[in-house]
From TrEMBL:
It comes from Rhodococcus jostii. Keywords: Membrane, Transmembrane, Transmembrane helix. The lineage of its organism: Bacteria, Bacillati, Actinomycetota, Actinomycetes, Mycobacteriales. This is Alkaline shock response membrane anchor protein AmaP. It comes from the Bacteria. The chain crosses the membrane at residues 57-79.
Length: 191
C-alpha cells in the first residue's frame, strides 16, 4: 500500500470511528437517561420522524445511500488491493549509449539465489515491490541460528552495493530481512 493510500485509509477509519463513537455515546447516554440527551430527544417531532419512511424521496435516498456506499467501498478496496509491483528500470549502457531494461523481480530472484549460497542459509524468498514510493528488492532469508551475523551482514551489504552499481544510479532499495530459526528447531530438508 502506498503512503498516500495508507494516510487516506487512516483518515477514513478515523472519521467513521469518530462518527460511530458519537452515535454510540449518544445512544448509551439516552439509555442511561442522561438529562441533557433526554432533553434533546424530547425536542424531536416524533410524528415527523416516524413519517420519514413514508415520504416519496425516502426510497430514492436509501438507494442513493446504498449506491454511494457500494461505489465508495469498491474504490477503497481497489486502492487497498492494488499490487505494489515495480516497473522495469531503464539502465544506461556505458558502451553503446543505449538503455537496457532491467526487470527488478528477476534481479531480486538473482540476489536471493546469491544469498542462498551463504553457509547456514536455509531458505530465501524474493520479490520486487514499491515500498513507500521507492522500488525495493525485498529478500527474506531464513537461516540457522548459528549463522555469523557480522559476516552475513557484510555479504548483504556487498550484494546491495553491487545492485546499486549495476542499476547505474537508479533509485532502487535493497532490503534483506533475516529470520533466524530457533536453536531447538530441527533442520528438515525438503525433497
Amino acid at each position: 500500500m502506498r503512503h498516500r493510500t495508507a494516510a487516506i485509509n487512516r483518515v477514513i477509519v478515523l472519521l467513521v470511528g469518530l462518527a460511530l463513537l458519537g452515535f454510540g455515546t449518544y445512544a448509551v447516554a439516552w439509555d442511561l437517561q442522561v438529562p441533557l440527551v433526554r432533553e434533546w430527544v424530547s425536542r424531536y417531532d416524533r410524528e415527523r420522524v416516524t413519517a420519514l419512511p413514508d415520504q416519496d424521496w425516502w426510497g430514492w435516498a436509501l438507494a442513493a445511500t446504498v449506491l454511494v456506499g457500494l461505489v465508495f467501498g469498491i474504490v477503497l478496496l481497489a486502492l487497498d488491493l492494488t499490487r505494489r509491483r515495480t516497473s522495469p528500470v531503464a539502465v544506461p549502457d556505458r558502451e553503446s549509449g543505449t538503455f537496457v531494461t532491467v526487470d527488478l523481480g528477476s534481479l531480486a530472484n538473482g540476489v536471493a539465489i546469491e544469498l542462498a549460497e551463504y553457509p547456514g542459509v536455509r531458505q530465501t524468498r524474493a520479490r520486487a515491490v514499491i515500498e513507500r514510493g521507492l522500488p525495493t528488492l525485498s529478500i527474506v532469508v531464513t537461516a540457522d541460528p548459528t549463522l555469523d551475523l557480522h559476516d552475513f551482514t557484510r555479504k548483504s551489504e556487498d550484494v546491495a552495493s553491487w545492485v546499486a552499481s549495476t542499476l547505474g544510479g537508479q533509485e532502487v532499495a535493497t532490503q534483506v530481512l533475516l529470520h533466524l530459526d530457533r536453536a531447538d528447531h530441527p533442520v528438515h530438508v525438503e525433497s
